[in-house]
Amino acid sequence: MLIGVGVSHKRASLATLDALTLRDLSEFYADLHAIHEISESVVLQTCNRVEIFLGTKHDPPAENILRTWALATKFKLAELQRTVEVRTGDAVVEHLVRLASGLESMIVGEPQILGQMQEAMVTARSFGAGGPILSDIFERATSAGAKIRAETGVGRGATTIGSAALRLAEQTLGGLEDLRILLLGTGQVGVLVIKALKARGVSNVAVAGRNREKTESFCRSFGGTPIPFQTVREKLQNSDLVFVATRSNRFLIDKESLSQQAKESGRRLVILDLSNPRNVSPEITQFDGITLRTIDDLKGIAEEGLALRRELVKKAEPLVRAAVERISAGLRRENAEPIISDVYHRADEIRVGELGKALSRLRLTAEQEEVLEYMSQRIVEKVLNGPVMNLRRAAEKGDSSILTVAGQLFAGE
Hints:
Blueprint: E1 2-8, H1 14-20, H2 25-33, E2 38-46, E3 49-56, H3 62-73, H4 77-83, E4 85-88, H5 90-101, H6 112-126, H7 132-152, H8 161-173, E5 181-184, H9 188-199, E6 205-208, H10 212-222, E7 225-226, H11 232-236, E8 241-244, H12 259-263, E9 269-273, E10 290-294, H13 299-360, H14 366-396, H15 400-409
Parallel strand pairs: 5-6, 5-8, 6-7, 8-9, 9-10
Antiparallel strand pairs: 1-3, 1-4, 2-3
Helix pairs in contact: 5-7, 5-13, 6-7, 7-13, 8-9, 13-14
């Protein structure tokens, strides 16, 4: 059985998403698999969502999963129950296809969710949590999502988080051309930010990441000037605009980091924290001249983009439904394959046994024996072809009772 539980930007603030972010995935995956009904799991965490997808042998109570999540994050269980969305079966498949198509993103059509879904699957496998069922579904969903994007254009020219963040900065600071800009982070969001800056002709960008070689490679590929991560605090003192897009589990910028900046009257600094969990302490807003913006502040810009893209979304919806039905039917059909394999195996055992008895009583040439062997194979195939086709159709329709009866009929002695 498929189960999905999650919290997204649709029902939760960035602060709530931050609080529900799982910092120690290794420990959390181990906790999940202590629930004996769970056979495989994948955690998907982005700026706008924290979601857990499960493959289960039986139907574990959602309460057990939510309690494990609440304990891992020290979040109130009652509040999590009010905020979380729970999906099962085909609804999970539909949600994954919509995610991959960009229809569930805060900025509709944004492309990085595809990579994030693939990365989540790889990470789950590295912890021994991702299994064949979820791997298959994630692969089918991302493939369907990419096709829907291509057919509808829903992702073409979509406003990325990077360009939306620049628009937000412009609303506060005006033009960006003469500003001294600092970018912390060289991951996917950092790439989107630097590309958006480059598209606007902004080149005065210092880039810092924890890995020196990766930071230098990032700047060679996308632009910007690499600086040592240890100099970030000093660099903050002469920056006008700072983008923070890292995966740190602690605040990288806090009151202490900006104490010198705060002393300089007349200085103005805008910081955009695009991280999840948050990497900038909200306490810095106590200083005059310092403005902090977060992912939550991008929602207005996202809604503007959605108004322009509603027609493309309408075009995508029927394609999503068709993809979900195709994927779900394929998954249900696969449920019949073990039974079908057993049917063929049992029939072939009988065929071989009876053929051996017949050949032992006949004096045939090798060529004649070959003809008889082929004939016996074709009889089995033709006799089973109709029932097997019906079994597969029943499986596609979700008629599990027929599969159960078939398994009993062909079980042998």
